[in-house]
Structures are given as structure tokens and as C-alpha cells.
């Protein structure tokens, strides 16, 4: 862990709700009274099936969704809906890595140009472009290429480097491995964890896959129908799930060879 982690901000979410208006007077409560903290340097997994509210919660943390109840603050600064570009300084300290790096990277700009833009936000002395690429295991020559010239996994590495270039205090991965081949998923998840640890950032890693989250997270939150139904140290939730829903999530993970529940997610090389 890097120096100064203890001085980094904590994310506090208290009784957070987000409701969407669906028209015809109907409403959908996508996030329903959720409370949790992400302490400096912590790696927290947020798991749950599709539609349970994970992305809505991630967007709310970034100030991109108005809350219908509760409060989120980051280092004491309330998170409000100001839009990504107009976020106040403390919210620039929260960076998202999205599911689809192709959509989140600018196709018309080189990797170097995109990393340079992010470096300008860094509050201290930002790593160089070459250092950023090295941190995500890409060669320095990647700097002068465009997003379409990379594979999906490589593009996600670029997206991680771009987030890290800003010097974030909190990284959020919103299903960052969901669009990747199974063989790559553990590698990219582990990379995000390593990069967060090396830079002193905390990490909220969102996935529907508890087996991958288990590889990287100290603590896990299990979300079901908008609520956090279970939370605790990852190994405790994995080995002794208290809630029927968590047991169902675990049962849905294929058993590889009788040695454990991890299928294709094990290889970390390459
Ligand atoms: N802008 C929106 N307007 C109306 N309903 C929405 C909106 N965004 C999400 N929802 C609904 O809110 C619920 C939670 O969606 P959300 O995307 O947060 O779930 P999720 O757990 O991230 O799912 P996935 O893993 O498939 O991305 C879903 O029922 C979804 O249809």
C-alpha cells in the first residue's frame, strides 16, 4: 500500500435510494435504502444479478443520478448531480471504468492524447504516459495507436490507465470484465486490484460474478432487487452465505473440477 492512504477520503452511502419515473405515473425504485462505506485503500465487491441496481448505484456515487432518498458523501463532500464534466474537484477523485471500453474511449484520438487529457486532472505529479501504459502491462508503443487497433482486453487496459492517470482516490469498475472472454476476466479484475493497491486508491468492483470478485475483494456487498441483502468479508460470504439469494448466486457458479468453484477465471498470466 502506498503512503498517505489513511488520509484519503472514505465513501459513505447512507440509506441511498434512486427512483426512476417510468411514465403513466409509474415509478421504479432501482436502489432501495442502501448503506455502506468504502474506506481508503479498500477493495469492495458489489455483486448481484442483472437489473438489481448495481449500475444505478455506481452512477449515483459519481453524482450522475439524483437520489430520491439518503445521502452519499466522499470525504465529507456531498455527491450531487452535476454531470461528469462539471463535477466539483472532490468528485473528480472518483473515476469509473465501464463495461464497454470501446464506447467509453474516444475512437478519433490516440491513446496518448486521451491519457494526456486525464493526466491534467491529476492533483500532484501524474505518472508519464509510458509509466501509465507499463502499469497496465501495455508497451509504450501503444500510446500512438487508436482504440480500434486494440483487442477488447487491451482496450480495457487503456481505460484503466486513463482512469488512473487522474490520480483517483476511488476507482469504480462497473462490470469492467463483463464484455471480455472468460479467460481474460480474472486478469483484468486482478489488474484493477493491483493498480488500485499500487496507487493507494480504493476500488469498488461491480460484477455479477462472485467467483471473480472473490479473487480481488476484501469485502463484498450482495445486492438483490435494489437492496444490499448481505455484506461481509469476502471469504465469509463465500464460505458461509447467510442469505438464500447469496446461496443461489453461489450455486449458479459452475464447479470446474471438484477442487473448487472457479472455472475459467483462474489463469492470471499473459
Ligand atoms: N434510466 C432509466 N430509466 C428507467 N429505468 C431504469 C433506468 N436505468 C435503469 N433502470 C432500471 O433500473 C433497474 C436497475 O438497473 P441497473 O442498470 O442499475 O441494474 P444492474 O444491476 O446494473 O444491471 P446490469 O448488470 O444488467 O447492468 C432495472 O430494472 C433497470 O431496468
TrEMBL record:
Q: Which UniProt keywords apply?
A: ATP-binding, Nucleotide-binding, Transport
Kindly indicate whether the keyword Lipoprotein belongs to this entry. Answer: no
Q: One Pfam match, by short name?
A: ABC_tran
Q: Which residues cross the membrane?
A: none
Q: What PANTHER family does the database record attribute to this sequence? A: D,D-DIPEPTIDE TRANSPORT ATP-BINDING PROTEIN DDPF-RELATED, TRANSPORT ATP-BINDING PROTEIN
InterPro entries given in the database record:
AAA+_ATPase, ABC_transp_ATP-bind, ABC_transporter-like_ATP-bd, ABC_transporter-like_CS, P-loop_NTPase
| Organism field | Branchiibius hedensis
Query: Which family would the database say this protein is a member of?
Result: Belongs to the ABC transporter superfamily.
Stretches assigned to the ABC transporter domain: 11-250
What SUPFAM superfamilies does this protein map onto? P-loop containing nucleoside triphosphate hydrolases (SSF52540)
Q: What is this protein called?
A: Peptide/nickel transport system ATP-binding protein
One Gene Ontology biological process: transmembrane transport
Give an example GO molecular function. ATP binding
Q: Which domain of life is it from?
A: Bacteria
